Amino acid sequence: MLVHPWDAARDGDEAREFLAAQGFGQLVASGRGREVAVVVPTQYTLDADDVVLHLARPNPVWLAIDENPFVLLSVAGDWSFVPSAWKAVGDDDPALGIPTTYYAAVQLTARAEVVDDADGKAAILRLQQGSLDPDGGWVDPAEHGRGSRRGRGLRLQVTEVRTKFKYGGNVDAEHRLAVAQRLADRGAPGDSAARRHLLRRLAAEG
After folding, report:
1. C-alpha–C-alpha distance, residues 4 and 108, integer Å
2. Which of 14, 89, 142, 171 has the highest count of CB atoms within 10 angstroms of its CB?
3. DSSP for 29-88?
4. Which range of residues forms the domain containing residue 43?
5. Is the dihedral of CA 159, 25, 190, 4 positive or negative?
6. H helices of the chain, where?
């Protein structure tokens, strides 16, 4: 992932808050000697400095993890297309604006630890269900009995974090504010989230 200096996360909290808000990503396990990696769309939950998740036993990712425990969790979202004309301010020629897509992305390299014991899996499921369904409309995972044995837990011990928050950081405040107003006016899916990132990062620059 190409990360320009103006796109990098301001601090660890920015990346962590994005990860917590998204909660869904692509788990990539390269294994050994494979032509292509195994890619698994999955929900996940943050647990201190680790990431935890739960997958079905037949999932092909387990063999790849047995071959090589180092994996990548790729999370991207809050994207919005910015047309050429939106880059124009004042006497700028709208036709000369460079179209782009705003988005945020965090990629975590991690060592995967498989969790097969009943207590460990139940703990992961409690964390996930508590995060996804905080109103508590679920029974404790320990009550699932045989059903709980159909899955395996996974704890990702993060070794590297790469971040990108591409929200116009390479242009001046006037141009970014113009795009922010147009995002508000259009109101398409993703526009509101992209606008919040743009304004938040602009404010952090002072």
Report:
1. 18
2. 14
3. E--SS-SS-EEEEEE-EEETTEEEEEEETT-THHHHHHH--EEEEEEEEEEEEE-GGGG-
4. 12-83+99-169
5. positive
6. 12-22, 61-67, 118-132, 173-186, 191-204
- Provide the CATH number for the domain around residue 164: 2.30.110.10
Q: How many structural domains is the chain composed of?
A: 1
> How far separated are the first and last CA of the chain, in Å rounded?
28
User: In this structure, is residue 122 part of a structural domain?
Assistant: yes
Per-residue pLDDT, averaged over 37-66, amounts to 96
> Contact, 45 vs 59, CB < 8 A?
no
Pick from 152, 92, 89, 88: nearest CA to 124: 152
Distance CA 188, CA 195 (A): 11
Give me the residues paired with residue 166 across strands.
103
